[in-house]
TrEMBL record:
Coiled-coil regions listed in the entry: none
Pfam short name (any one): Hydrolase
NCBIfam families: HAD-SF-IA-v1, HAD-SF-IA-v3
Protein name: HAD family hydrolase
This protein's record includes keyword Hydrolase: yes
Top-level division of the source organism's lineage: Bacteria
């Protein structure tokens, strides 16, 4: 880790700043209730708890052009469900808004607000996500210089263009960015392959980040071994407070020593 080169930080959102699973569970429960109330033809199909997941997987297969647009995929899956149940597909937008409102209701990990305050006072922060979370709706937008999503960019992590776009937004060279995230494939290996540095947030022994990329439908960058973490230089931390502590210590130790005038 070359602390003296860091001029900006890009941060993943889901499972880095807040747990993603509770957001998804709430959002899908709200969507399910709305559909059953406003599109009664879906009730029999939605009695199977795996239905929403199956329709989302089908949308992913049928709409490769939406691969980087999770909101677009969700809309397409809702529309297909409505059509199959002989309900008005125009209801898809209202149904999605119900889902999306709950998806944006996040609960930060305990240390995040304090750590973001400290980090943003030291360096410019940019959000970089493959998902459809909004930093402003999450209540953390004031910490960031800006945000980039895969849907807006048309390219998702681990593609180098995603990290280069974050660097451009921060106004620095990619080599001057420290990217922070929980997913080994998408965040760590992807950032290093793009010429940035990386910090891997591992909050528990089970949260190794290896499966998260597959869950979102994105694969690992070619030529990078997800198991041999030693092959990719990175900083590993338990949370954002530890990140700030190590960053502060590393930057202090990398400063040139003051010459004595005595």
């Amino acid at each position: 880790m070359q602390f003296n080169r860091i001029r900006a930080i890009s941060l993943d959102l889901d499972d880095t700043l807040w747990p993603f699973r509770p957001c998804l569970v709430r959002a899908e429960a709200a969507l399910l209730a709305w559909l059953q109330a406003h599109a009664p033809g879906t009730r029999s199909v939605l009695s199977d708890p795996t239905t929403l997941m199956a329709y989302r997987a089908r949308a992913h297969e049928r709409h490769p052009e939406l691969r980087a647009d999770l909101s677009g995929l969700r809309r397409a899956s809702i529309r297909a469900l409505l059509e199959d149940c002989r309900e008005d597909p125009a209801l898809a937008e209202a149904a999605f808004e119900v889902f999306f409102a709950e998806r944006q209701r996040v609960e930060l990990f305990p240390e995040v607000a304090q750590a973001l305050t400290a980090l943003s006072e030291r360096l410019p922060l940019v959000a970089l996500t493959n998902g459809n979370a909004c930093i402003h709706k999450a209540g953390v937008g004031h910490f960031f210089k800006g945000a980039i999503s895969a849907a807006e960019l048309g390219v998702a992590k681990p593609e180098p263009q995603a990290f280069h776009a974050a660097a451009a937004l921060a106004g620095v060279h990619p080599s001057e960015v420290l990217h922070v995230g929980d997913d080994w494939h998408l965040d760590v290996a992807g950032a290093v392959a793009a010429g940035a540095q990386a910090a891997w947030v591992v909050r528990s022994p089970q949260a190794l980040g290896i499966a998260a990329g597959a869950a979102h439908g994105f694969g690992p960058p070619a030529g990078l071994d997800a198991v041999d973490t030693g092959a990719v230089p990175h900083l590993r931390v338990n949370d954002l407070q530890e990140l700030f502590d190590q960053l502060s210590a590393g930057m202090a130790s990398s400063r040139p020593a003051q010459r004595s005038t005595v």
